[in-house]
Amino acid sequence: MTQPRRNEWTQKRTGWVNNDLVPSISDHMYRMAILCILSTDAQLDVPKCVMMALVHDLAEAQVGDIAPREGIPKAEKHRLEAEAMHNFIHEMLHDSPAAQRMDALWREYEAGEPPEAKFVKDKDLQPFFDSSLPNIRHPEIKSGGKDLLCLWSRGSS
């Protein structure tokens, strides 16, 4: 795990490639972690958000960034990602305490249950505000998204 897997550092994010932007999966996770640090929401466990942002797409290092346009059903995408996480947690990290922490964070993110998972999921949608703003739940991100859309619409007129 401490040795970078080639895809983790070089696999390009599909949604971004389609829009001529090409950050890697690790670029994306790092950017999200920084954005979580910048949160002003005192109700959130910000360190937990940062850790969650750093592991939320780790499975993509093995399965790639599966975009909706690829037609892979959500259940199959989840199965592939869960299998990849199982490999990381049990085979690469030997079910260590750190591995268990990563697994718990990933499962919470996937379930979208605690406020931190909702916040990180909303951050994950942030680059695509034009289509995802109605799905954003966290007020800080929703407000920022509306502000960005307003700014973008003024710039294009």
Description:
The chain is mostly helical and 157 residues long. The protein has a domain at 6-114: Hypothetical protein af1432 (Orthogonal Bundle), CATH 1.10.3210. It is built from 10 helices and no strands. The protein has helices spanning 6-10, 14-17, 25-37, 46-55, 60-63, 74-92, 97-111, 115-125, 129-132, 139-155. Helix 7 (97-111) crosses helix 8 (115-125). The radius of gyration is 16 Å and the shape is globular. The protein starts with 5 loop residues before the first helix and ends with a helix. Mean pLDDT is 78; it is low at 1-6. It holds the Pfam family HD_3. Residues 10-124 form the HD domain. Keywords: Hydrolase, Metal-binding. One of its GO terms (molecular function) is metal ion binding. InterPro entries: HD_domain (IPR006674), YfbR/HDDC2 (IPR039356).
Low-confidence stretches: 1-6
Q: What proportion of the residues is helical, as a percent range?
A: 55-70%
Strand proportion, as a percent range, falls in under 5%
The CATH homologous superfamily of the domain at 6-114 is termed Hypothetical protein af1432
Mean pLDDT score? 78
Question: How many strands?
Answer: 0
Q: CATH topology of the domain at 6-114, anyone?
A: Hypothetical protein af1432
Task: List the total number of helices.
Answer: 10
Distance between the termini: 48 Å
Secondary structure class reads: mainly alpha
How are the elements arranged and paired?
Layout: H1 6-10, H2 14-17, H3 25-37, H4 46-55, H5 60-63, H6 74-92, H7 97-111, H8 115-125, H9 129-132, H10 139-155
Helix pairs in contact: 3-4, 4-7, 4-8, 6-7, 7-8
InterPro entries: HD_domain (IPR006674), YfbR/HDDC2 (IPR039356)
Pfam families: HD_3
GO molecular function, one term: metal ion binding
